[in-house]
Structure formats: structure tokens, C-alpha cells
Specification:
79 residues; mainly alpha; 3 helices
Length: 79
């Protein structure tokens, strides 16, 4: 049990260190505008995928209680 608590404490404590390494060494320290652009494009694609999946998941949950959200793709059931 102590090992689990130590592990969680270390992971939570190292979040700031991880962010510092990510920002200073990868994005700002690279000196290459292409790496910054690639990281930003990757983040935008990831956020778009999460948003679409979240919309689909929330729409499926709301459909179970009778609330219908508009379809994004237009290939849903025609009623």
C-alpha cells in the first residue's frame, strides 16, 4: 500500500516537471518552427477527435432518455 501511495505522490509531483520539460525542451527550446507547428496541428486534430466522439457519446446517452440531437453526418435513421 505504501508503494502505491509513493507512486501516486511521485506522479502527481512530477506533473509540473513534465510540463516544464514539454514546454521548454520540446516546443520552445527546439528553435524549430516546424516542431511547434506539428505539435499544434497534432493538438488540434486530437481535440477535434475528442469533441466528435464526445458529441456522439452524449448524443447516444441523450437519445436513451428521449432527447434527439441533430446528426452531424446526415446518414442517421430517417424518421
Amino acid at each position: 500500500m505504501i508503494a502505491l501511495i509513493d507512486f501516486v505522490t511521485r506522479v502527481v509531483g512530477d506533473v509540473g516537471r513534465f510540463l516544464d520539460i514539454f514546454l521548454n525542451d520540446l516546443i520552445l527550446g527546439a528553435g524549430d518552427p516546424l516542431s511547434v507547428l506539428l505539435v499544434l496541428v497534432g493538438q488540434v486534430l486530437l481535440l477535434a477527435a475528442v469533441a466528435v466522439f464526445g458529441y456522439a457519446a452524449v448524443g447516444a446517452l441523450l437519445r436513451e432518455i428521449g432527447v434527439n440531437l441533430p446528426s452531424l453526418g446526415g446518414r442517421g435513421r430517417s424518421e
